[in-house]
Description:
Blueprint: E1 2-7, H1 22-29, E2 39-44, E3 47-51, H2 58-61, E4 69-71, H3 77-80, H4 83-86, E5 94-97, E6 115-116, E7 126-129, E8 132-138, E9 146-152, E10 155-160, H5 168-174, E11 181-185, H6 201-211, E12 215-219, H7 223-232, E13 240-242, E14 247-248
Parallel strand pairs: 3-4, 4-5, 5-6, 10-11, 11-12, 12-13
Antiparallel strand pairs: 1-2, 1-14, 2-3, 7-8, 8-9, 9-10
Amino acid sequence: MRLTLLGTGDARQVPVYGCECVACDRARKDQRLQRRPCSALIECGDQRWLIDSGMPELCERFAPRSFNGILQTHYHADHAQGLLHLRWGQGLVIPVHGPVDPEGLADLYKHPGILDFSQPFGAFETRTFGTLNVTALPLLHSKPTLGYLFEGEGRRIAYLTDTVGLPPSTLDWLLREPLDVLVLDCSLPPQPQAPRNHNDLNLALQCIDELRPTSAVLTHVGHTLDAWLVEHREELPGNVSVGFDGCEL
Length: 249
């Protein structure tokens, strides 16, 4: 099983338009430090599923029938805007599995085109695709949001973004068996007060301590966290790393 982080940025991405902080300045000079909309690709056996669709150039990046479908965490624009173009394709149907959200994004439900939204996940529902088992995990966010537990080929990977902390029921579910890899939302450097809609580093490390994965990778990273990491990266625990666009796990 392989998980590729296609994008690791928050809604602003990195560099932020008009920002001159150290992280944004470095990212303009070095493309490898840029962060695009948070998304990933999970591969297991003959299965290839996109996780989120915030990259607007999905039609150019993925040839028709090169993936099985999309696992949507939620319908904020930075995670779903690529669907607005993708839907106008022809000659195929792309299943989009995600949370129950009556609003969705813009007019996607009214004009779905080739996208099939007919099978949203229920909380803690597991679906089997070939050798890949996918379980939907409720998260804490301003829109109905799911994380996903991937199990296959003897591995367990949890992908949890966007969230601020974890619901007790999701934490209990994940503690049933050890995690090999935890990919976790961490948008902000340590904050003096509890964050409102995304993890800061303090809350992310608390979640990691509770779940005890073999390794943890931070994603949905904002430019203020990247700027903080310039001087403090060595303070991260040994089993915690910061994801980057193109990172393969």
